[in-house]
Amino acid sequence: MNRPSRYCSNMSDDLVLRSDADGVATLTLNRPDKLNAMNPAAFVELRNHIDAIATDESVRVVVLTGAGRSFCAGNDLGSIAAGEKAPSPHFQAETIDALEALPQATIAQVHGYCFTGALELILGCDLIICADDAQIGDTHGQWGLVPVWGMSVRLPERIGVSKARELSFTARRVSGVEAAAMGLAVRSVPLAELAGSVAETAGQIAGNSSGTVSMMKRLITDSQNMPRTEALQRERSQPYGRPDDMAERMRAGGR
Predict the structure, then answer these.
(1) Residues 179 and 242 in one domain
(2) Do both 100 and 29 map to the same domain?
(3) Is 160 left (phi over 0), alpha (psi -120 to 50) or beta?
(4) What are phi and psi of 45, to 5 degrees?
(5) What is the pLDDT of residues 13-60, one digit of tens each?
(6) How far apart are CA 83 and CA 240, in angstroms?
(7) Domain that holds residue 246
(8) What pLDDT shows up at residue 127?
(9) In a shared domain, residues 162 and 231
(10) How far is 3 from 52, CA to CA, in rounded Å?
């Protein structure tokens, strides 16, 4: 379902844009003059979109990207210095939690810089697809900061404890190619091919049963929070039932 044009204008004053097409909702961080650094106001807009998408059955896939020459430079240090505040003490972390909890599949489309808070943000997505020359890193140590948006939990989950320690302790930046090699990203592609690669993956997901995708997402999350034998038993019990479109898709031969 296509949204009104106000969601799609790159000239908008909105800090996060939304555009919808063919079951894919694209959220674009829209502070290109600041390399899309996230201030509290941007998080409020992002949260509003996430909350709206959570109950929007027309959306099958969510793509998170950034306008201009970078995905996101991270938390806006200028807003911190200026004393800007989010609506609640843990609003940013809870927004990433809400992104992670969306029933739809989520894809982070990463180009240019993706540092610290931006890395925490994309770790809330199911899949990360990068440009080969993207620069990704946890720079908390460079600034004398400690993560509070989930880095110490989600980064080890994604790439393993030892590699997460190395990236966080050294503040080393890695390219999209290296991010894919270590399992942080599912793949990296040349920058010119990034949007097309993400669109292809989003289209493949959107063409499948949204019920299956949502239930698989929940089952995989469940399995990370319980013993293996318990997770196997839970899957067999079909705790989330069966997708509503199962019979229809079976009759149509899976199409």
Answers:
(1) no
(2) yes
(3) left
(4) -65, -40
(5) 899 999 999 999 999 999 999 999 999 999 999 999 999 999 999 999
(6) 44
(7) 210-251
(8) 98
(9) no
(10) 13
pLDDT of the residue at 254: 60
b/e burial code for range 71-82 (CB count within 10 A of at least 16 → b): bbbbbbeebeee
List all residues 6 or more positions away from 106 whose beta carbon is below 8 Å from its beta carbon. 61, 62, 63, 64, 99, 100, 124, 125, 126, 127
pLDDT of residue 4: 35
What is the block-wise mean pLDDT of the chain (255 residues), using blocks of 10 residues? Answer: 36 88 98 96 98 97 98 91 91 98 98 98 98 98 94 98 98 98 98 98 97 96 94 96 90 74
Give the torsion through C-alpha atoms of 209, 26, 174, 164, to 10 deg: -60
Number of domains forming the structure of the chain: 2
- Are 111 and 71 within 8 A, CB to CB? yes
- Residue 223: half-sphere exposure toward Cβ, Cα within 13 Å: 13
Enter the tokens of residue 240.
């989330």
Indicate the DSSP class of residue 243: -
What gap in Å lies between CA 194 and CA 131, rounded to an integer? Answer: 6
- If asked whether residues 174 and 218 sit together in one domain, one would say no
